[in-house]
Design a protein that fits this description.
Blueprint: H1 2-17, E1 27-37, E2 40-53, E3 57-70, H2 73-78, E4 82-97, E5 100-110, E6 114-127, E7 132-145, E8 155-169, E9 174-187, E10 195-199, E11 207-211, E12 217-231, E13 235-246, E14 251-263, E15 267-278, E16 306-320, E17 329-347, E18 360-375
Antiparallel strand pairs: 1-2, 1-18, 2-3, 3-4, 4-5, 5-6, 6-7, 7-8, 8-9, 9-12, 10-11, 12-13, 13-14, 14-15, 15-16, 16-17, 17-18
């Protein structure tokens, strides 16, 4: 049984660190997810289907729904709560030839005022006795941006992403990973509903809102490192770090530490903590002095300086069936994440306080996920 649990843990570690050149297993997943935070609720189902063809090809389809209701602090300052639905469909295929795995997919995401399409191509190759895996990827997206209440508003945005990753089995217990990403965005890159605020002595509140102005290009680069270590008592530790920078002046860092532990024959418990921090964009300010102070002006809190701390816990239970049965095994997963965000230069303008002296904003959020998986 210890050998079986070791296999399970190593499989989990490989999944975390990027994986080797093997086809995904035949399986079906049904998931429910829910997010609650900053006055916004997001929930919905997701269904994933995977099926191999002649052990050389794996086909997949995923359907994902987000129902959004409420109003974040940005919306509460300028508008009323709203409700909308986003539907996302992904079709994919994986092709295995010797030690080479090629993956392709197409994704469409649709809302009443936004349409996003993207294609993805990835190739991974095992080397040196399957101890090293090199991965290359490319993704291209094109978005159509609309605006509710304005039928004449129509903007476009194009995105490209290049990725390179290396996974190395360093010892029988240690797996290391390294990856780099380059992302290029061009077109209409801001949100038509978000606004900056500027001082106005003639306004009752002492300030007014106007639509943000963003550059029409953005280049981002990210570097990631990870390590996954198997412990002798059927457990594992992992650590991940990601460093990000872009041409808008944002520098960010994400650090994650996790622990996986098995109990008995069928239970797997995982816990993690993650810390995120970033510096603001060059053209971000909470309060501007006049309407057209600069060529580019933003007040989206996600472009401000802020930090976030997340703690997560998940529990999985797995049933094993006969190898001759139609269903080989199944599992149930429950996951819960609690998040806290603190903003260094974004103020709560809904508070009753002098202009520019409102309290700094912060909020808690919770995410739950529950899903059932069946392998066949």
């Amino acid at each position: 049984m210890a050998v079986t649990k070791r296999v399970i843990l190593i499989a989990l570690l490989i999944c975390h660190s990027g994986g080797a050149a093997v086809l995904p297993q035949d399986r079906s997943d049904v998931m429910y997810h829910r997010y609650e935070g900053d006055g916004v609720s997001i929930d919905g189902p997701s269904i994933l289907l995977r099926k191999k063809v002649h052990n050389k090809v794996s086909l997949s389809a995923n359907y994902y729904v987000d129902t959004v209701s409420g109003a974040s602090i940005d919306v509460r300052a300028t508008a009323s709560p709203y409700q909308e639905e986003r539907k996302e469909t992904t079709l994919g295929a994986d092709f295995l030839h010797n030690k080479t795995l090629m993956s392709v997919s197409y994704t469409n995401s649709s809302e009443n005022d936004f349409e996003a399409n993207s294609v993805y191509v990835g190739v991974s190759q095992d080397f040196f006795g399957d101890l090293t895996t090199l991965s290359l990827s490319y993704a291209k997206g094109w978005d159509e941006v609309g605006k509710t209440g304005d039928p004449d508003f129509a903007e476009q945005a194009d995105r490209q992403k290049f990725g390179l990753g290396i996974t190395q089995v360093a010892t029988k217990n240690l797996i290391l990973g390294f990856s780099v990403e380059n992302i290029s965005d061009q077109g209409y890159l801001n949100n038509p509903y978000r606004s900056i605020r500027f001082l106005d002595a003639n306004s009752e509140r002492g300030f007014r809102f106007v639509t943000e102005k963003y550059p029409d290009t953005r280049t981002s680069n990210a570097v990631s490192l990870n390590a996954h270590y198997y412990l002798p008592y059927r457990a594992a530790l992992y650590a991940e770090g990601r460093w990000y920078t872009d041409t808008w002046g944002i520098d960010a860092m994400n650090i994650k530490l996790g622990y996986i532990h098995t109990f008995g024959d069928d239970w797997v418990l995982e816990g993690f903590v993650r810390h995120y921090s970033q510096e603001k964009a060059d053209f971000y300010q909470d309060l501007f002095t006049r309407e057209n102070e600069f060529n580019f002006m933003a007040r989206d809190k996600e472009l401000s300086s802020f930090s976030g701390l997340t703690a997560g816990l998940s529990l999985a239970y797995e049933w094993q069936f006969s190898p001759d049965a139609l269903v080989k095994k199944s599992s149930v997963h429950l996951e819960w994440d609690h998040m806290r965000f603190e903003y260094d230069n974004f103020r709560d303008v809904t508070a009753n306080a002098p202009v520019g002296e409102e309290p700094l904003f912060g909020f808690n959020a919770n995410v739950i996920r529950a899903f059932v998986s069946v392998w066949y």
